[in-house]
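Hey, I was hoping to borrow your eyes for a little while. No rush at all, and the record is pasted right below:
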Amino acid sequence: MRILVIEDDAVLRDVMVRSLSEAGHRVDEAATLGQAEHFWRIQPFDAVLLDLNLPVGPAGQGMGSGLSLLRAARARGDQVPVLVLTARDRTEERIAGLDAGADDYLGKPFDLAEVEARLRALVRRSQGTQDITTVGTLTLDRKARRLSLQGDRFELPAREFEVLWELMTPPGRVVSKRTLADKLSGFDEALADNALEAFISRLRKKLVGSGASIRTLRGLGYLLEAET
């Protein structure tokens, strides 16, 4: 998953980013409303972690509410799952967050494992997918972040794993080159078309004998399908 973490506490933000990255996710981070708005508008995410009390910009510009970001995203039709993280625990504030478009609410302090579990649940619900998906003899367990081939562990480098994850979430859909490149790129690095094609080429070779193959649909993208 590609996740945006919006949190002004540098220590907490670093802990969350490190934990989610170590779990295999691609994570972008924002510390102010200005940064978050910019990132959220230009990059599609699978999920957003949103703190409510955020500085507007650099020191001295005052504080604002993360709910303004959420309302703006929903107003422009962005339905990315949003998990609100906050120290506020009053019922009326939780209701305000949910009414603004939040999908779930978690009070601080929280367990990092629970954050990831809730994110998986939100994304699974939004995409209509299950934790375990199979194409041919290739199986993806999203909860364990594990691939298996004919029941045996199937190891892949991180970026190849992310490509296959995207193609299997859910399987049977066409994924554009732009979508794959966005999921694999950072704000400071863009994935070139030839690099993406190299990932696809290596995956095709590794999938031989799995009963699954990656088909290129010219002008549309890639499709992972069971071989017949």
Summary: The first strand starts at residue 2 and ends at 6. The chain is about 40% helix and 25% strand.
